[in-house]
Amino acid sequence: MSDSPADLLITGCTVLVHEEKERIAFREDAAIVVRDRVIASVTTAAAAEDMAALERIDARGQVALPGLVNCHTHAPMAALRGLAEDLPTEEWFNDVVWPVESNLTEKDVALGARLACAEMIRGGVTCFADHYFHMDVVAGVVTECGMRAHLGEAYFSSQGPQGRERSLEFALGHRGAADGRITTALAPHAPYTVTDADLTATAELARAHGLPVHLHAAENRAQTDTSLARHGITPVEVLDRTGLLDTDLLIAHGTGIIERDLPLLERTGGRTAVATAPRGYLKFAWPDTTPVRSLRAVGIPVGLATDGAASNNSLDVWESMALTALIQKSTEGDPRWLTSRQALHHATLQSARAVGLGESVGSLAPGRRADIILVDLTGPHTQPVHDLAATLVHSARSADVRTTIVDGRVLMRDRELLTLDVPAVVRELDQRLAALADRSHGRRIQEYDT
Ligand SMILES: [Zn+2]
């Protein structure tokens, strides 16, 4: 160990670690040493007592977890939170969201993304996979606020070949930006809005440039049924036919994945991952949820997500974790399925894998990037602790996150945001809401027809 002071020393906490076979375990009275933005060691509090450090956090009574990853969102849509309520999917898209998105300016995207990042940092999210327009603006917000992000410029075939070209240009131009905190993906919207020819071209570009792909597919059962009726194949079979299952692929939702899709997904050997955002499925009254158990049985990582705040109303990944555990028990009719430890595995390593960061984040271990959250369990709703995993998943809330650290930098300390000014963002956003919500122009950016 170096004699020079550590950059950051977190002492006295309990640390969530992954043991053999990735079993979730907890190390009590521990310390985390951070040097050069990386976890140098997870040691005992006693061993760290006399260690020199430039910055120290006394974390007694708190649990250190890997920062949460929001595996699928549309951060700027925080500006549309609450605008399209209590509607079926089709009306949500066609009557409100896609008309309103034709008003969207770069300024709206910047303000929405800032608000989203503030909310996510407050909720212990250290990394998010974003899929939206004006992604260079989102990249700028990520750079300024200190988060980690996996970004993709979304496109529809209705935009012509320029959409796909912009997506590629963004992915090549921004990968590795923000000191390596930004990774990028190609981001076709979905098989129902992007033609097979464009999906095939996207898969070729992904392979040629070593880029992953992030898209919506088999979002719900109706999309799968429509695909079967129109083309005779499921959305996952479309991904296979167009070569996308030969890329590093992140599928958002997948609640319409059916039995016959599973062998195709299994063949990807874990290169395909699925992001689940269960709150929106409940709100849209979709009949299914992501088939987590079947996907796990064929080796597919399932990461946690929130989708955008226009459908989910929050970017609370902690809530997605608790809801996933509950909904899985309910849909499988099995209280033994999706234990708290399994939920924590989804929230940590599986979510990191889903966004292509399985080797660098998702676990508090030497050599991993220092993306760490500290959770306060001293509140009455989290005491006493008989089973720490259950306390975390079913009793704790995102508001119990006291401190959020990304790449060794403290972004929130004792609930105070250090890199974003929420009142200033809200003031500016408020002045723009009327223009943003205006639908009198009668335009929409795309048609939902499935
Ligand atoms: Zn989405």
Automatic annotation (TrEMBL):
Keywords: Hydrolase, Metal-binding, Zinc. InterPro entries: Amidohydro-rel, Metal-dep_hydrolase_composite, Metal_Hydrolase, MTA/SAH_deaminase. The keyword Ribonucleoprotein does not apply. One of its GO terms (molecular function) is deaminase activity. It comes from the Bacteria. Transmembrane segments: none annotated. Residues 64-410 form the Amidohydrolase-related domain. Gene3D superfamilies: Metal-dependent hydrolases, Urease, subunit C, domain 1. It holds the Pfam family Amidohydro_1. This is Hydrolase. It comes from Streptomyces cellostaticus.
